[in-house]
Amino acid sequence: MPELPEVEALAAFLRERVVGHAVARVDVLAISALKTYDPPVTALGGLTVTGATRHGKFLDLDVDGIHLVIHLARAGWLRWRDEVPTRPARPGGKNPLALRVHLDDGSGFDLTEAGTKKGLAVYVVRDPNDVPGVATLGPDPLDESFTADRLREIVAGKRTQIKGLLRDQSVIAGIGNAYSDEVLHVAKMSPFKIAATLTDDDVATLHEAIVATLRDAVDRSRGLEAQDLKGEKKTGLRVHGRKGQECPVCGDTIREVSFADSALQYCPTCQTGGKPLADRRLSRLLK
Asked: What is the SS3 assignment for 169?
């Protein structure tokens, strides 16, 4: 799933390529991906792209005041084309095409989504806050207002495991399953630690880990082509997706806890005092 660093990089990538160009037309192949009807997607035709930005994990193209807002979800992706095929696009294939944007110079991009569980969402709105997921976003962790004091306010009284809290977009915007694993590894903190139990020192450490981990990932992604961002994310991860491999910090074996539709990875030595976490939904340390 693309998270804050990848979406930030995609926004920068699009700023270089689409700002100043007019939208020739938009082809919608997966009607289920289009979540709005007013303004209609056809309203984008002939308008000029004036900006590309990000709200959490949402990508936002400003097209003369009408916003094309995209959430790539678990398996969606943006594929740039220097030359968009003139023949009509067809649905289906390994990475089914959901939407295609044609620009006035013949270039453009596709939105695709692999797998059977569809979550890709596209909105055409007059204000990004008309998108429910954008309107309810928590603070952006790369914003200057996201300080250690702000994080302390966020965790205060929360009887929630810190892993889940970091992934809650209404609490902190942009962090998903992968980078929450990375942040907690850097902070040397158990994913099952209860947020309300964090000391002031814990909060300061966690804040530094959040900002440093995300900024490092953004820096690594800067300037990359859209097709290279997934590979960069994977190679830059230290624990997420690396079950059974050696921890790059201490050499211990990275372990995993599996859930119904996701999994987390962590290092016992670095994060849980050497104790393995119970690999079941009860989410507590093995005795």
From this structure: coil
DSSP 3-state percent helix, strand, coil across the chain (nearest 5): 30, 25, 45
- C-alpha distances (whole Å) from 13 to each of 22, 51, 101, 121 are 17, 11, 15, 20
Nearest to 123 by CA among 66, 74, 75: 66
Question: Tens digit of pLDDT for each residue in 270-286?
Answer: 999 999 998 755 444 44
pLDDT digits (tens, 9 = 90+) for 75-130: 899 999 999 987 877 766 666 899 999 999 999 999 999 877 889 999 999 999 99
Angle at 234 (CA atoms; ends 215, 274), nearest 5 degrees: 85
Please answer whether residues 226 and 214 qualify as being in contact, where contact means their C-beta atoms are separated by less than 8 angstroms.
no
Look up residue 4 and give its amino acid.
L
Nearest Cα to Cα of residue 98 among 124, 125, 119, 127: 119
* Cα separations in angstroms, 213 against 178, 251, 287: 11, 20, 32
Look up the pTM and report it.
Answer: 0.91
* Predicted confidence (pLDDT) per residue in 27-73, tens digit: 999 999 999 999 999 999 999 999 999 999 999 999 999 999 999 99
Topology annotation, domain 4-135: N-terminal domain of MutM-like DNA repair proteins (3.20.190)
Residues 216-220, mean pLDDT to the nearest whole number: 92
> Cβ–Cβ contacts within 10 Å for residue 57, how many?
24
The two tokens of residue 132 are 């429910």
Q: Tell me the CATH architecture of domain 148-271.
A: Orthogonal Bundle (1.10)
Each domain of the chain, given as residue ranges in start order, spans 4-135, 148-271
Query: Residue 28: in which H helix or E strand, if any?
Result: strand 23-28
